[in-house]
């Protein structure tokens, strides 16, 4: 179903930039002003110089915003800091990272994926987006004519067909294998064999791809594509680079594909409405008092939530485990009843808060910070959620529905800077 192709990526010249770990960075939406400056000091060629930019003045033109970035990108290519591979390639990434005392490893295929309207059901979104963030990435692409960071997407490989292909490739020497200060390591291989490339393309031609992280970047790439189509009928030729977007594709069954809980916070709710919200929670959920620190609370939610629909609530008065009553579930809720976040937002908060729901509801993945603020009274309530199960993710999203915003926190984010995808000319 999905058009997946190799491409001639632009990659760092290691002789010029030195340690590859020092030029990588997280995606733009994970970078604040402080770590942006730290990354810039880490290496003068760190890809943050090209990737950062969210939060610039959206009232100015793209040319004004990203002129310096565009000039830098041109200079790096002219000076050989970045070099384009001679032949189209797939790029195989092995990313290892520490988590809870374990070393996790995930494998992803960096490829060029055909852009389609969501209605075509080739690329499946799982959440809705916000227009300003999309426009920011469109302007960056307009200035650079490139994808700097890959979108994280997932696919189903029940028989392990690509897993066997990847194993054979990773027996060989990588283009690089770099370890960063946190103990994470990233290795990269090029896949140039035409027979293997054909096998990979045929594999994806029969199945959909699920967007995991990067909805704004996908929709920005789609807008960039449509803008090019409006300029010329020739721009619709299927092999032109702007008809594709760079993704890193990871299998659902990859043991290193980690999803963490994305928690909800509530604040600024008038006392009478807050009382009604708590009454609704009591109507829908059985409650049991919890004790322990934030780690213990999250551990209980994760462990007990494996076979039940539940979440923990925390406020200045303590913590409670809230287990959804089977008798409370309405048939009209459908598959989304699997999502505690959906039940909380649509059946508890929105009936009371209406259009003002998002004025009071926010999202945090740092459970320690969230619990501390709830216990101190800085926040009225915090709801700790388990990681959203990937089987339910596949069923709901594959069925054409979208999850509540911030339902998934895929961890860690993909490294940016392994490969850059130019959007000019042909693949």
Judging from the principal axes of the Cα atoms, what is the shape?
Answer: globular
Strand portion, in percent? 15-25%
Mean pLDDT: 93
User: Unreliable runs, pLDDT <50, ≥5 residues?
Assistant: none
The tally of beta strands, per DSSP, is: 21
Structural class: alpha+beta
**Total domains, how many?**
2
Q: Radius of gyration, Cα only, in angstroms?
A: 23 Å
Number of helical stretches of at least 4 residues = 14
Percent helix range = 25-40%
Task: Characterize the largest beta sheet: strand count, sense, and whether it forms a barrel.
Answer: 9 strands, mixed
Task: Report how far the terminal alpha carbons are from each other.
Answer: 19 Å
Give a verbal description of the structure.
By secondary structure, the chain is of the alpha+beta class. It folds into two domains: 4-258 and 411-422, no CATH class; 262-386, Conserved hypothetical protein from pyrococcus furiosus pfu- 392566-001, domain 2, CATH 3.30.1760. Helix content is 35%, strand content 24%. The protein has 14 helices and 21 strands. It has helices spanning 14-17, 33-42, 48-51, 62-78, 131-144, 161-170, 194-204, 215-231, 271-284, 294-304, 340-353, 357-360, 367-376, 390-398; strands at residues 4-5, 10-12, 82-84, 90-99, 102-114, 123-124, 146-147, 151-155, 176-179, 185-191, 209-213, 244-251, 258-260, 263-266, 285-290, 310-315, 318-324, 361-364, 381-384, 409-411, 421-422. Strands 1, 4, 5, 6, 8, 9, 10, 11 and 12 form a nine-stranded mixed sheet that branches. A hairpin with a 2-residue loop joins strand 16 and strand 17. The longest helix has 17 residues, at 62-78.
């Amino acid at each position: 179903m999905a058009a997946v192709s190799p491409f001639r990526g632009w990659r760092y010249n290691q002789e010029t930039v030195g340690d590859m770990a020092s030029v990588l960075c997280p995606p733009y939406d994970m970078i604040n002003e402080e770590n942006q400056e730290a990354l810039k000091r880490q290496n003068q060629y760190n890809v943050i110089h090209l990737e950062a930019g969210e939060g610039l003045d959206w009232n100015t033109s793209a040319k004004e915003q990203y002129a310096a970035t565009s000039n830098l990108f041109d200079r790096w290519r002219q000076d050989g800091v970045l070099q384009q591979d001679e032949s189209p390639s797939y790029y195989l990434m092995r990313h290892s990272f520490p988590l809870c005392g374990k070393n996790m490893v995930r494998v992803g295929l960096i490829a060029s994926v055909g852009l389609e309207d969501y209605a075509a059901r080739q690329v499946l979104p799982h959440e809705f987006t916000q227009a300003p963030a999309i426009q920011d990435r469109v302007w960056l692409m307009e200035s650079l004519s490139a994808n700097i960071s890959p979108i994280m997407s997932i696919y189903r490989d029940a028989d392990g067909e690509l897993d066997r292909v990847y194993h054979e490739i990773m027996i060989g020497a990588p283009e690089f294998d770099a370890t960063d200060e946190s103990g994470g390591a990233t290795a990269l291989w090029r896949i140039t064999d035409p027979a293997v490339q054909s096998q990979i393309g045929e594999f994806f031609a029969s199945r959909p791809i699920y967007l995991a992280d990067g909805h704004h970047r996908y929709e920005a790439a789609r807008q960039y594509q449509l803008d090019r189509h409006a300029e010329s009928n020739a721009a619709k030729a299927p092999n032109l680079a702007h008809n594709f977007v760079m993704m890193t594709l990871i299998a659902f069954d990859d043991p290193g594909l980690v999803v963490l809980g994305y928690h909800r916070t509530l604040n600024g709710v008038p006392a009478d409405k807050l009382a009604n919200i708590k009454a609704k929670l009591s109507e829908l959920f059985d409650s049991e008092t919890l004790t322990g620190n934030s780690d213990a609370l999250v551990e209980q939610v994760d462990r007990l939530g494996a076979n039940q629909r539940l979440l923990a609530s925390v406020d200045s008065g303590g913590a409670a485990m809230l287990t959804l009553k089977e008798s409370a579930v309405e048939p009209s809720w459908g598959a989304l009843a699997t999502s505690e976040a959906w039940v909380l937002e649509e059946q508890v908060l929105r009936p009371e808060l209406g259009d003002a729901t998002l004025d009071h509801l926010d999202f945090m993945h740092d459970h320690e910070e969230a619990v501390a603020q709830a216990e101190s009274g800085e926040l009225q309530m915090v709801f700790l959620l388990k990681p959203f199960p990937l089987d339910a993710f596949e069923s709901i999203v594959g069925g054409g529905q979208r999850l509540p915003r911030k339902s998934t926190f895929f961890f860690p984010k993909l490294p940016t800077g392994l490969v850059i995808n130019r959007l000019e000319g042909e693949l």
